[in-house]
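Serine/threonine protein kinase: structure tokens wanted.
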Amino acid sequence: MYVTEQTTTAPGTTPDTTSRPVRVNAWNGWDPLRHVIVGRAEGTVVQAPEHAVRRDYPDDGFPLGTHGPMPSDMVAEAEEQLDDFADLLRRRGIRVDRPTPVDFTRQVSTPEWTHDSMFGCMPPRDLLLTVGNEVLEATMSYRSRWHEYLCYRPVLQSLFEADEHMRWEAAPKPRLTDASYHTGFWDTYNDLSTEEQLARVRDYDLVLTEAEPLFDAADVARFGKDLFVQLSFVTNRSGYQWLKRHFPDHRVHAVTSTNTHPLHIDATWVPLRPGLVLHCGERLADAELMEFFRRNDWEIVEAVQPASWEHPPKLSFCSPWLAGNMLNLDENTLCIEEKEVRLAEQLSSYGFEIVPVPFRAVGPFGGGLHCATVDIERDGTLQDYFPRRYGRY
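Answer:
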């Protein structure tokens, strides 16, 4: 079933969210959403190359080794879609906060390194993780994103002042010296065969070393008592171990991908509601993880191929499976990019109401609807959805 707008107020008015007390509370990705951060495209740059990542767009004016602001027409279109999405959420009674961009073109440094650019603040999901009443700032493993937390400090400060029970935490800021990277990784990895790349992924022999804990928040999937942490290009074993120790009251699981370029779990293993999880057809979870879910009576849905995907004309580093990067408004309502009609029809068959959202222009700025948001408050409490243990889980 498709829906366009559902509000509890008179047509043409916006629900008043300011009278409701601010509360940080989110244990999963499907309880009813009450408060969210929506990112901004303003100021985003194609970041300068570094050990962790390289951008190479020779047909679009940014060949390898160059960097600079995203084209103004792309920024304007993405900002319009982000603003419209924020307004849609507000009309549904959801409180919305936005980050404060800084000058991402500036050279940044620590006493141990200097980097020629930053990146942006469109994908807050990469940096911030809400677990219960805690908001945790992730480490980030790109030098270009080391200072990105500054964009969210005004929002976090206001949350801290408004909710006396909020826990505001930050993982140890990493040094990001050359010791944190296999510095020649990108010189050889993309020339390997698919089988060789997958072997490297299975062995977690990727760009990051174990010199220090590193993780992106978007590599963590929250299922109540259980947190699943994907080892990827931006999350190492040490980062997983840090998260496991930081959340001692949770069961924290390390997950390896069958994708040759693992980067963030929220388009590959997507919780929809209790008992139902979506996975990407090209990035199947390992057999032991799938068996663990099935033994706990979860149905695993293989997403249809993204039939309508067309990459934005330039400067996009997203894969077609960004289609699965969706936002739950509650366990019965999903926001999905408007052109992903086949996926919407597939999930409608499971009883979901689908809110189609124009969002294609946002992709080059760091992801989809889930990437562009961080849930601050959802109704609900901590639940155990996996009472039966299996294997290493």
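The first strand starts at residue 33 and ends at 38. DSSP finds seven helices and 19 strands in the chain.

Cheers.
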